[in-house]
Every structure is written in C-alpha cells, then in structure tokens.
Write a structure and sequence with these properties.
The protein is α/β, with parallel strands linked by helices. About 45% of the residues lie in helices and about 15% in strands. The chain binds phosphoric acid mono(formamide)ester and norvaline (NVA).
C-alpha cells in the first residue's frame, strides 16, 4: 500500500508539491480544471472552534462532489478518551481523508501515524498551514509571485507566525518577525529556518519589520486556548498595525489577517477595512487553496 499523502505542515512538503497544490487550487477556481471527488468523504474533527475552516472544507467538498462528516469533542468518543490512534484506524475504514483542528500537535502526528488515509492539519497550537496556502494564493493574485518579496509579521509569535516561517522557506520570500521577547516564536522553528537557509530576521521593533515590506500580516493577540489575555494585551499593544506603520511598508503593500480579527487591538479599523487590506479575498481563498489540497490528497 502506498503511504497516504498527508498535508501536515508546509516544511514537511517540498516547494514543488506546494506550488503544484496551489496551481491546482487556482485552476479549479478559474474553471481551467475540473476535479471530481464524487464518492469521497472527508471527516472533520474539531477540538477548537472554527468558522472559516469548517465552512470552507464543507463547502469545498460539496462543490467537488464529495461529502463530509463533522465530529467535535462533545459528540464523539474522542471526548471520552478513545485514543487518537484508535480513532485514526476506525475513521480510515469509513472515510477517504481526515482534517483535524486540535490544540496538541502530537495528536495530529498520532492521527497521521495511524491513519491509512490522508490527514490534513486544520490548525494546531503550533501551525496553520492551510491558511498559509490561502495567503500565498491571495498575495500572488494581487501582486504576482511572492518569491523575493518581503513579508512583515507583526505581533504574537504564534501558530500563524510559525507557518509563515515555513512558507518563507518553501515559497522563497523573506520574513521579518516583530514579536515581543516574551511572546517570541518557538526556537525550534527558527532553528529549522536557519538550517534551511531561510531568510528570516527577528526584531522587537515593529517599525523595522514593516519598513519596505510588500505584505504586512498580523493576528489576534489572544489565540484559542491562551489564558493570559491581560498580559498579552499589555505586551502586544506596541505591535498594533496602524496607518502610520503601513506607510513604512512599500506603497503597493497589502495587509492580511487570517481572521477572526479584533479591530483597534492588533490592527486599526482604518487599516483592516482600508484599501490595502485583502482580507476578504484571503478568507475566500481558504476555499480554493483547500480544494487544491483535497484534490492532491485524495486525487
Ligand atoms: N482563519 C481561520 O482558520 O479561521 P477559523 O478559526 O474561523 O477557522
Ligand atoms: N492564532 C489564531 C489563529 C486563528 C485562525 C488561533 O490559534 O486562535
């Protein structure tokens, strides 16, 4: 039996595969290619809330002719302690792929180790690769190839920041990460970047990161599961993306946010709702980029 084509993290796939997945998603979006997943079923496991991930995977499967089964903690035996390994073995007998959103990256790995069908990472505390596929697609639709461009990440060194580092490596852009020291990105991700020669710089100064950027990105100050909201607000206040900061970026820079957003916290309303913001295209592209992922995994 051939190994399932898991979509676990961007750095676990090569650049050629990721470009091919994005091209497939774009071709399906434009109608240049048609893909059928008729007769295929995707299981969606949610151990954390979701709007975009849930709806875009459900709608994406429906539009490709397939089906979904949605499971959450409360309604399945996972919530009562059935092991991830046993769940993987059982689901593999029913469905053709499994997407999981979970707090613990170890659960994603365990699922992938024991499933005989492809497993897709729909966000863990460590990464959010599906979002990055949509983000790269969106940048390239608006401004052409992201290769060689400068991306500024401003705010928390969280799961999205980690996936931006992986994406910088695979899609060939440079990344300036501005985070407070207390909320710095996990050292293992930076060590990976160093070992791969990825162009990542770390600064505590958001203005330095934004200077000359082609894309400015931020995310919520309090991610799902974070318990220290007050502390995070205090630490991240100097990292708000506002109109002045956007003027430091290149004149044709775009602004992105994976959403959900908190206006006038991580980003001011005039920026997120302003002319440089491409957040609605970004949200839409979850659907299109994930069709590429689904077709690649199950095709
Ligand atoms: N961006 C994103 O993953 O949104 P949801 O949490 O709504 O799925
Ligand atoms: N960093 C955020 C992303 C939400 C899509 C979180 O993990 O809550």
């Amino acid at each position: 039996m051939t190994a399932p084509k898991h979509f676990l993290d961007l750095h676990k796939l090569d650049a050629q595969t990721l470009h091919a997945i994005l091209a497939l998603g774009s071709d399906i979006k434009s109608g240049r290619k048609s893909v059928s997943l008729a007769g295929k079923t995707l299981a969606l496991i949610f151990e954390k809330p979701s709007t975009r991930t849930r709806v875009s995977f459900e709608v994406g499967m429906m539009q490709l002719g397939g089906n979904v089964v949605v499971m959450d903690d409360n309604g399945s035996q996972l919530g009562r302690g059935e092991t991830v390994a046993d769940t993987a073995r059982v689901l593999s007998r029913y469905v053709d792929a499994i997407m999981i959103r979970t707090d613990d990256p170890a659960k994603l790995d365990e699922l992938a180790r024991h499933a005989t069908v492809p497993v897709i990472n729909g966000l863990t505390d460590d990464s959010h690769p599906c979002q990055l596929m949509a983000d790269v697609m969106t940048y390239e639709e608006h401004r052409g190839s992201i290769r060689g461009k400068k991306v500024a990440w401003v705010g928390d060194g969280n799961n999205m920041a980690a996936s931006f580092v992986h994406a910088a490596g695979r899609f060939g852009f440079s990344l300036a990460l501005a985070t407070p020291e207390e909320l710095a990105l996990d050292g293992a991700v930076l060590r990976w970047a160093e070992s791969e020669g990825v162009d990542v710089t770390v600064t505590r100064d958001a203005d330095v990161a934004c200077a000359g950027a082609d894309l400015v990105v931020t995310d919520t100050w309090v991610s799902m599961g974070d318990k220290d909201s007050d502390r995070r607000h205090a630490l991240l206040k100097p990292y708000q993306v506002d109109a002045r900061r956007m003027t430091l970026a290149n004149a044709d820079a775009v602004f992105m946010h994976c959403l959900p957003a908190h206006r006038d916290e991580e980003v001011t309303a005039d920026v997120i709702d302003g002319p440089q913001s491409v957040i609605w295209d970004e949200a839409e592209n979850r659907l299109h980029a994930q069709k590429g992922i689904l077709a690649w995994c199950m095709g």
